[in-house]
């Protein structure tokens, strides 16, 4: 088989794997937050400006969460993947959510990053609360 075709097949397989891994990580993140007493509001909330992986509520806070799932630290830590540009997109998307969902106007908005590390059979969660945007 042509090397170019092999690379393209590998790329497509890995793209599907990453997408499934990300979805699994987001489901684990949802369970993590629910076990901590948060109420689930939405997942994969999208606007043209970007997407918010998970939105939860706890007491007087509405929490917007970026979930990063890792199976190895070889390509960097999850929190390092949330760049300044990514934060800007998330901030804009948070604003759209709050404009469209007036029932959360009295809530304090917060941005968190949750890294789901699946380096072994038991996932490990690294939670960064109230991250500066």
Q: Strands, helices and their partners?
A:
Layout: H1 3-35, E1 39-47, E2 50-58, E3 61-70, H2 84-100, E4 108-117, E5 124-128
Parallel strand pairs: 3-4
Antiparallel strand pairs: 1-2, 2-3, 4-5
Polypeptide structure, described:
The chain is an alpha+beta fold. The chain has a single domain (3-128), classed as Trna Endonuclease, Chain: A, domain 1. Helix content is 38%, strand content 32%. The chain contains two helices and five strands; from the N terminus they run H-E-E-E-H-E-E. The chain has helices at residues 3-35, 84-100; strands at residues 39-47, 50-58, 61-70, 108-117, 124-128. It has a five-stranded mixed β-sheet with strand order 1-2-3-4-5. Strand 3 (61-70), helix 2 and strand 4 (108-117) form a beta-alpha-beta unit. The longest helix has 33 residues, at 3-35. The relative contact order is 0.17. The model has no long low-confidence stretch (mean pLDDT 89).
Overall morphology: globular
**Beta-strand percentage range:** 25-35%
User: How large is the radius of gyration?
Assistant: 16 Å
Q: Class by helix and strand content?
A: alpha+beta
> Which stretches are low in confidence, meaning pLDDT under 50 for 5 or more residues running?
none
Count of the domains: 1
Q: Keywords for this structure?
A:
Trna Endonuclease, Chain: A, domain 1; 32% strand; 2 helices; 5 strands; globular; alpha+beta
